[in-house]
Amino acid sequence: MSHVDIVQKYMDARMGQKHEEVVNYVTDDVVLISAKDGTHSGKEAFLKYVKNTPPTGTWEKPQEAGSQVTVAGKVRFLMMDWNVKSYFDFSNDKISKIEIKRE
């Protein structure tokens, strides 16, 4: 399975709030960095974040960008729509880092 396919499966599970499925796609030492929600390191902290932070917004299909996969989206925060992009890094065939930035 390609990294783009892995991110698509991750996004499908995340948007469907399938928490236990989401963690199947990440490494044990995964790091999530969100401009809005801070940094969450390790699978346990990541799972807690996923369970406590429902997904929002609309997201485009994943795109390969060099060694990363990116997903552009639009989320609503404080009554404003923000353009954001998620950057996915990999260790073998698991997501090792997700960084969500405002664009």
Poorly predicted regions: none
**Gap between N and C termini, in Å?**
29 Å
How many DSSP-defined strands?
7
What's the pLDDT, averaged over the residues? 93
Element pattern in H and E: HHEEHEEEEE
Helicity level: 25-40%
- Largest β sheet strand count, sense and barrel closure: 7 strands, mixed
The chain-level structural class is alpha+beta
Number of helices: 3
Q: Rg, please? A: 13 Å
Broad shape: globular
Residue share in β-strands: over 45%
Description of the molecule:
The protein is of the alpha+beta class. Helices cover 26% and strands 48% of the residues. It has 3 helices and 7 strands. It has helices spanning 3-15, 19-22, 43-52, and strands at 26-34, 38-41, 58-59, 63-65, 68-77, 80-91, 94-102. Strands 1, 2, 3, 4, 5, 6 and 7 form a 7-stranded mixed β-sheet that branches. Strand 5 and strand 6 form a beta hairpin. The longest helix is centred in the first third of the chain and has 13 residues, at 3-15. The protein is globular, with a radius of gyration of 13 Å. The termini are far apart. The model has no long low-confidence stretch (mean pLDDT 93).
What are the defining features of this structure?
single chain, 103 residues, alpha+beta, seven-stranded mixed β-sheet, 7 strands, 48% strand
Draw up the topology in text.
Elements lengths: L2 H13 L3 H4 L3 E9 L3 E4 L1 H10 L5 E2 L3 E3 L2 E10 L2 E12 L2 E9 L1
Parallel strand pairs: 1-7
Antiparallel strand pairs: 1-2, 3-5, 4-5, 5-6, 6-7
